[in-house]
Amino acid sequence: MATASNWTVEAVLGELRQAGSEENRAGMKRFGIQVDRAFGVPMAVTRPLAKKIGKNPALSDALWAIGWHEARILAGLIADPKQITPAQMDAWVSDFNSWDLCDQVCAVFAKTDHATEKIAAYATDEREFVRRAGFAMIAWRAVHAKKAPDSEFLSYLDLIADKASDPRNYVFKAVSWALRQIGKRSLALHQPALALAERLAASTDKTERRIGKEASRELTAEKTLLRLRRKS
Fold first, then answer.
1. Over the Cα atoms of the chain, what is R_g?
2. pTM of the model
3. Theoretical Cys-Cys bridge with 123: which of 23, 33, 81, 134, CB 3.0 to 4.6 Å?
4. Closest by CA position to 190, among listed 143, 146, 152, 224
5. Could you tell me which of 185, 162, 188, 170 has the C-alpha nearest to residue 130?
6. Are the C-beta atoms of 137 and 118 separated by less than 8 Å?
7. What percent of the chain shows pLDDT beyond 90?
């Protein structure tokens, strides 16, 4: 077992290989995750391992370059948002090939100083996982960027409306996620998000209707409304 001060790529890969299993790889595959270069390690193992290692940008970069699925998820977990550059974000986003890798890494990207500029760039990119990254970052910021003004999230509603007709599986799910998280962020954001959801639900476009109905259902749920009232 490596200590906190001497983790290497080889030590990390050894931990991941030992924790992986064919059963987990099969489960990942059923959920649409590419497993050609995956050990089959659950997040219940990866997250504690990341805590043992701690923030380590150099090791993060090296693990990403190796290309193994769980190594890249771990790379995101041990990356330091304060040291992530726009160029690094672009390079990593271009490598996304699974929704779980995209979402885990975007939770970190959403904390960087470059998040807002990259959201606009990624959400309008034609590549499926890059576009998903833009909307995943919106969703993560809606939950965790406590000091961000509501005006930031109001501006994302136009992006959501513009891309809500994208029928690709990994895009429309992220668009829906972003809309629902914006609507649950505050009472001030709830009404405009719900208004967009209802407009989409009435659309003639199948994908827009699906997103709109899903968001409307969650944003009008009593537990959502109660939570918003408590936060106000």
1. 19
2. 0.94
3. 134
4. 224
5. 170
6. yes
7. 96
